[in-house]
Amino acid sequence: MKVGVVVFPGSNCDRDALHVARLAGAEAVPLWHEDPDVAGADLVILPGGFAYGDYLRAGVLARFSPVMQAVKAHAAAGGLVLGICNGFQVIAEAGLVPGALLRNASLRFEHGWVRVSVERRDTPFTAAIPAGRTLRMPIAHGEGCYFLPDAALDALEADRGVLFRYAAPEGNPNGSAHDIAGVISADGRVCGLMPHPERAAEAILGSDDGMLVFRSIVESVGASTVGAR
Amino acid sequence: MSGAGTPAPGTAVPLHRALGVTDFELDAIVERLGRAPNDLELAMFSVMWSEHCSYKSSKPLLKTLPMGGEDVVAGPGENAGVVSIGDGLAVAFKLESHNHPSAVEPYQGAATGVGGILRDIFTMGARPIAILDGLKFGDPSSARTRHLVRGVVRGVGGYGNCVGVPTIGGELVFHPSYAENPLVNVMAVGLLETRLLTLASAPGPGNLCVLFGSTTGRDGIGGASILASATFGAGQATKRPTVQVGDPFAEKLLIEACLELIEAGLVEGLQDLGAAGITCATSETADRAGTGILVDLDAIPRREEGMAPFEVMISESQERMFATVLPEKVDAVLAVCRRWNLPAAVIGRVTADGDITIVTGGLAPDGSPNPGALEIARVPARALTSDAIVHERVAQAPTHRRNAPAPGVPEQTEGGLPERGMDPGAVLQALLGDPNLASRAWLTRQYDATVGTDTVEASERAAGVLRVKGTRKALVVATDANARVGLIDPWLGAAMAVAECARNIAVTGARSLGVTNCLNYGSPERPEAFWQLQEGVRGLGDACRALGLAVTGGNVSLYNESAAGPIAPTCQIGIVGLLDDIDTLVRPQFRGPGDQVVLLGRSVPGMAGSIYAELAGTAPDDQLPALDLAAEAALGRLLRAAAARRLLRSAQDVSGGGLAVALAECALWGEVGADLAVSVAAEPAVELFGEAPGRVVASVAPADAETLEALAAEHGVSFRRLGETGGDRLRIRLSGQGATGAAEERGAGVADALDEALSALRDAWERGLPRALGEDVATPPPAAEVR
Fold first, then answer.
1. Residues facing B676 on adjacent strands
2. For residue A139, what are the CA distances in angstroms to A12, A146, B50, B276, B447?
3. What sign for the dihedral angle of Cα B276, B279, B282, B285?
4. Which of A54, A146, B190, B731 is the most exposed, having the fewest neighbouring CB atoms within 10 Å of its CB?
């Protein structure tokens, strides 16, 4: 499978995402923010960082970049998109997933290790995660407090749009509604999350739980490719 | 040659004095030029001959440091030290201060401190992979300190988090001497392919000079001479306009652009712009290459109208780079800058005449000044840099001073501490909750420590560890200082900082590759402060020689004084170590129940300079612990040998708070208790809380304990069994004649043991820092403080 990692000016987890995509066995290429297409990638990753300096508001400038038009087209055609941290902020601003990311409740940047529960296993992002397994991953963000108006939140829950939830013992680090750490689009092809699975993909770094997300994607793309043939 | 602008109009004081140049220095400038300087030239000299840029007071001392070494690829004089780690890879690293700007504007001061030291690293072709921060503040209960701590921590985090470099270690120290003059020392570490090493030089007459990155504005005018090189008096708020403003987003683009230029072989030399701006970058690179530079002032991209020539030449606008480029490659360089949205311009060319020459009116295509162009300054590059003035300062030891005893000399310990009645458990809780020793989570939560996917350990009380992708190697980095001891004996303070930092590397099993340092002292014009600097440099050199370490670079920050007095002499040390096989890494925390706990290294008396003494408020300053550098070296060899043979389950250095705090940290971090016994010869406080150097707490599997004991004997290192890990309490029985006597006085007839639940110790440790800063759980920070 082929992974494209978008590089905005100010992205700083792009090299990490490329590294882990390759570890997971995928071909991985950078996609420049001015690129007109996604280079035939099966999965597009929007990595963490501070795209365009996060000026004005996190993710808001990035959504107008040329590559984001290509990412939207890719998603509309059923391609996979994974937005991590700042990438989640970008795809939320672009309307690819519901919700908005507000300042952390502490009003401070928060770094630390958290645990998330996996709310669904019938998605390309979670299919290989064993039942009952929580994932331990780092967070590193100033604006990760997931917000939706109450009615929309109820609808999101009813539509099974919540994919990851902050769990004990560390719990909710940023005041997110319903402890939401990650969401998935209605068609199940676009996922955004605040924790960093790419930073928790090797045991030497403290956890390899995040590799389960990448393995899920590689296996599901492999399966659908086989199916298409 | 007038019309160059007048830096300080409307003042009765002669211009040179207004710029901080003494009459004596003006004479030296005239001597070097063979004529009087014009105003622009004088402004250039004033920043380049500032203490910050010229090291005019410290240069003679720094020459005494040991600098060579088998691992050293580039040493002092370059932007950063570079050491080889094999496999064609090298590490660039350096410590730098941003003390004075942080005292005036803590957020921007700290942020630009991070930006500046990162530029020193990637200028050399290294990708920055870690930041460590050595922070020193006054009493945490004061409103000013809290304002400074919050601002500085947000500044370090705000910049480092945005550029995507993990902050994986450092030091946070509170001492009253830093109240008005905090210390912000930042260490950066970068990784490079040795073949891409790029030097800060401007070789090849005829080559073109490209300035790229941010545009040039009026920020930071004279920061080097005004802020960094003078003592704060009243009215320091008026110095705010000289504090630079950082843009980490621009820095991130600069990192990527520079590394791309270097990887593609497009630059002959590269220098970042820091203190003294374009004047410094042009003169230093030309002097190193033995060339000159003709600067086309009009070509320099600016962010504001109407800037005088001297403002353009000495502006300290951040996030700028100066490259020397072959004429045929200049288009490719400009294209890379365009791709990263960085303004770039050819601002001059390299000449053979050795002069920094500034013209207005533009250069012709052949590189010579246009007809009608005006030469507004011409100064030999070396007069600004390597031939800058050097002052022979006067050193005078204080009349009342105490030295540490020589190793092995028995020390008088009578009449010291109120031992009887001491409850060691309560003291341990107080120490763990002290802001100097408590959990750093309040701070580390604000720093991204995991970006880059290399962080194996991040810690503010031990070493940080990074794996090196594509190899089996790991880098181990630490930074330490010892202000409390330095205040009593500046030689010992500096030497103990080296010893502690080297020990923090050694406990992991790694070998130290090189030392960087940041010398924070008072005014060199005061003989007593200059003596402290002299003693500090001597201690640094002595310790490095004894431990076989090379000094690869560093930074000097003088004039750290305020109306309230000078800071404690602070020699901040940074060391990078190498572990050849990451599988042999030894971590500080206990690993599980049933391991033997041992103390490696001998305890010696002396409580002065310890946190316990500060809390107790009683230790006389003549009871400093002795430092035995030969024993320290032997301990390091033992630790590396033991790690290589995989004998150690854990190892943690004994430093702040002494043995009891080190044991508590091992237990808290490992979430397993221990049942131990310590024999007390004279004073239990010395045994439990003394901060004598040269000691490590280790745990070892029972089956390996004898092997370790034999190995310790082979290395001549003292080995004492303390007990066993297990349970959820830390229990230390005290035996021997020096028991505390508290229980005895209650009629029990035996000494009190230290016996505390880990949960209680954890509570004290976790709440200590937020409580000290007035942010214990219930009190969130005022909203206005948050950015």
1. B723, B732
2. 14, 14, 43, 39, 11
3. negative
4. B731
Total Cβ atoms within 10 A of residue B669 = 17
Among B162, B453, B457, B460, the strongest candidate for a mutation testing the A interface, having the largest count of A CBs within 10 A, is B453
Beta-bridge partner residues of B357: B294, B378
pTM: 0.92
For residue A169, cis peptide bond before it (omega within 30 degrees of 0): yes
Q: Does A205 touch chain B (CB under 8 A)?
A: yes
What's the pLDDT tens digit per position in B591-631?
Answer: 999 999 999 999 888 888 999 888 877 666 668 899 999 99
Strand runs labelled E in B278-373: 292-296, 320-325, 344-351, 355-360
Interchain proximity A109–B780, CB inside 8 Å: no
Give the Cα separation of B129 and B131 in Å (integer). Answer: 7
Whole-angstrom Cα distance, residue B306 to residue B511? 54
A211 Cβ partners below 8 Å, 6+ apart? A20, A23, A24, A197, A200, A201, A202
Asked about B100 being catalytic, the answer comes back as: no
Identify which of A12, A20, A198 has the shortest CB distance to residue B163. A12
| Closest residue on chain B to A112 (Cα) | B445
Q: Does A202 touch chain B (CB under 8 A)?
A: yes
- Alpha carbon distance A163, A171 (integer Å): 16
Strand pairing class (B719-725; B650-653) = unpaired
Residue B56 has what DSSP assignment?
T
Which among A52, A54, A111 is the nearest to B447, CB-wise? A111
Edge-to-edge strand ranges of the sheet holding B320-325: B269-272, B320-325, B208-213, B344-351, B292-296, B355-360, B374-380
